[in-house]
C-alpha cells in the first residue's frame, strides 16, 4: 500500500503541473472559460505543493480548508462549465482533479491508525543502535540519567521535517538549560544528515538509523514511504513515520506522538510542558 502511495504522490504532482500548463495554453488559444477554470483548479493543488518547499511549515491542519474549499468550488465550476460547453474532457479533468486532492487528504496523508505495541508509556524503549555521521554508534545507555527528546524525521527531502528540525533548533538553549538531550533521527545517508547538522549548527545529536533497524524495532517504519523518484537522489524507498518520543532520566517513555497524518505534528511547546510536568527544571 505504501509503495502505491509513493507512486501516487509523484504522479499526482506531475499531473497537476502538466494539466495546469496545458489547460492554461488551451484557454489562451480558445478563450474557453471551462479551460480557464480547470487551469486554476489544478493550479491550486500545484501551488500547495510548491508552497511546502518555498515556505516549509512544520505542520498543517489535517483537512487544509484554505486549499480544499477553493479546490472543491473550482471542481464544481469546472465540471459545470465543461458541461455547458459540451466538453466531456473538461468534466473528466475537473472530477479527476478533485479525486486526486481527496486521495491526498484522506488516503495518502494518513498512516491508517496503525496500533503500536512497541512504544508503551511508562516502559523503557526497545534496545536500539543509532549512528553519528562519523559512523560512531549510539545507544540508550549513552543517555542514561538524562531526559531525552527523540524526533524521527523522514529526511532532507521532506520540507515539513526540515521545518520541524529548524523549529526545535530555535529552542536549543531552553532545552539545554533543562538538561535535555535532543536526538534527531533519520534513515537518510550520513552525508545528508551532516548537511542538516551543519545548516542549523546546534549541539544536538543528529543520528542515522541505518537500514531502519531502530524504526522497525519501534514499530514506526514506513515501507515504501518515500515518494517515487527520490531514490535517484540517494534516498531509500523506505522511510520512517514522523514520530516524537520523550523519555525521563530513568529511560522511561513519558510521551509519544505517532502521528496518523504526516502533516499534523505537535507544537514544541508541548514538549516543554511534558518535561516540566516530569520535574525537569
UniProtKB/TrEMBL annotation:
Any Pfam family the entry gives: AhpC-TSA
Q: Give the top-rank taxon of the lineage listed in the UniProt record for this protein.
A: Bacteria
| Keyword rRNA processing in record | no
Q: Which residues cross the membrane?
A: 7-27, 33-55, 62-80, 86-107
- Pinpoint the Thioredoxin domain residues: 119-280
Do you know which PROSITE patterns this protein is assigned to?
THIOREDOXIN_2
InterPro entries given in the database record: AhpC/TSA, Thioredoxin-like_sf, Thioredoxin_domain, Thioredoxin_ResA/DsbE_sf
Q: Cite the entry's keywords alphabetically.
A: Membrane, Transmembrane, Transmembrane helix
Note the PANTHER family from the entry.
PROTEIN DIPZ, THIOL:DISULFIDE INTERCHANGE PROTEIN DSBE
Descriptive protein name: Thioredoxin domain-containing protein
Q: Which organism is it from?
A: Litoribacillus peritrichatus
Amino acid at each position: 500500500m505504501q509503495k502505491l502511495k509513493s507512486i501516487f504522490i509523484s504522479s499526482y504532482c506531475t499531473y497537476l503541473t502538466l494539466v495546469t500548463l496545458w489547460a492554461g495554453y488551451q484557454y489562451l488559444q480558445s478563450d474557453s472559460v471551462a479551460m480557464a477554470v480547470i487551469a486554476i483548479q489544478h493550479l491550486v493543488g500545484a501551488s500547495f505543493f510548491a508552497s511546502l518547499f518555498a515556505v516549509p511549515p512544520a505542520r498543517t491542519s489535517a483537512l487544509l480548508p484554505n486549499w480544499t474549499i477553493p479546490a472543491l468550488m473550482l471542481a464544481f465550476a469546472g465540471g459545470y462549465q465543461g458541461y455547458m460547453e459540451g466538453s466531456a474532457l473538461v468534466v473528466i479533468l475537473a472530477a479527476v482533479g478533485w479525486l486526486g486532492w481527496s486521495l491526498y487528504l484522506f488516503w495518502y496523508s494518513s498512516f491508517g491508525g496503525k496500533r503500536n505495541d512497541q512504544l508503551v508509556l511508562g516502559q523503557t524503549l526497545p534496545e536500539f543502535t543509532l549512528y553519528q555521521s562519523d559512523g560512531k554508534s549510539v545507544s540508550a545507555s549513552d543517555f542514561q540519567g538524562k531526559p531525552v527528546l527523540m524526533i524521527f524525521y523522514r529526511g532532507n527531502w521532506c520540507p515539513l521535517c526540515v521545518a520541524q528540525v529548524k523549529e526545535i533548533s530555535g529552542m536549543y538553549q531552553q532545552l539545554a538549560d533543562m538538561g535535555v538531550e535532543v536526538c534527531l533521527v533519520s534513515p537518510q545517508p550520513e552525508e545528508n544528515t551532516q548537511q542538516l547538522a551543519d545548516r542549523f549548527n546546534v549541539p544536538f545529536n543528529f543520528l542515522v538509523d541505518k537500514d531502519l533497524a531502530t524504526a522497525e524495532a519501534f514499530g514506526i517504519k514506513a515501507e515504501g514511504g518515500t515518494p517515487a523518484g527520490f531514490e535517484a537522489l540517494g534516498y531509500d524507498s523506505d522511510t520512517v513515520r514522523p514520530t516524537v518520543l520523550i523519555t525521563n532520566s530513568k529511560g522511561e517513555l513519558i510521551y509519544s506522538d505517532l502521528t496518523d497524518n504526516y502533516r499534523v505534528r505537535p507544537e514544541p511547546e508541548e514538549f516543554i510542558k511534558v518535561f516540566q510536568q516530569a520535574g525537569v527544571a
